[in-house]
Amino acid sequence: MYADDLKIYNICSHYEVLTKDIATIYNWSLEWLLPINADKCNILYLGSDNPKQTYFINGTERTKCDSLSDMGVIVTSTLTWSEHIAKVVKKANKILYLFGKTFAKPDVNTVTKLYKTYVRPILEYANCVWVPTLQRDINLLESVQRCATRVPYGQVRPSYPDRR
Known about the structure:
Number of helices: 4
Mean pLDDT: 87
Protein name: Reverse transcriptase domain-containing protein
Order of helices and strands: HEEEEEEHHH
Largest sheet: 2 strands, parallel
Low-confidence stretches: none
Strand order of the largest sheet: 1-4
Helix content: 40-55%
Number of strands: 6
Number of domains: 2
Radius of gyration: 22 Å
């Protein structure tokens, strides 16, 4: 048993306060016999003017990283969502590929149900957190839908606006 999914953040960059908070949590975990798995503890620095201090747990320096996955959402130090969107699009495209291999010539209604059931939840998961702002990210997400509309038509298909 470990203490799991704990996040600590400090807005004002007070190194001493954050260090004291880490020590307090570490001592609490020892007291309650719920050890912190220090190997899984990472530091994600946000902001360009962050002093990027070094933090320790039980005398061991913590690993610095440029991005972390938190509940399936990739958060980067620059707070851009391109890395997360690329991961989501790749996963959605894999599922669309499986549709094409699994169903021989599915009709439009079947593809629509499959898309709404298996692909859209992947694309929309936690989207209130990672709303795309860059046009390239929006186009990447849109490419999944364009690909899905091709599935029922095979090689010969109408233009994109004519597909439903």
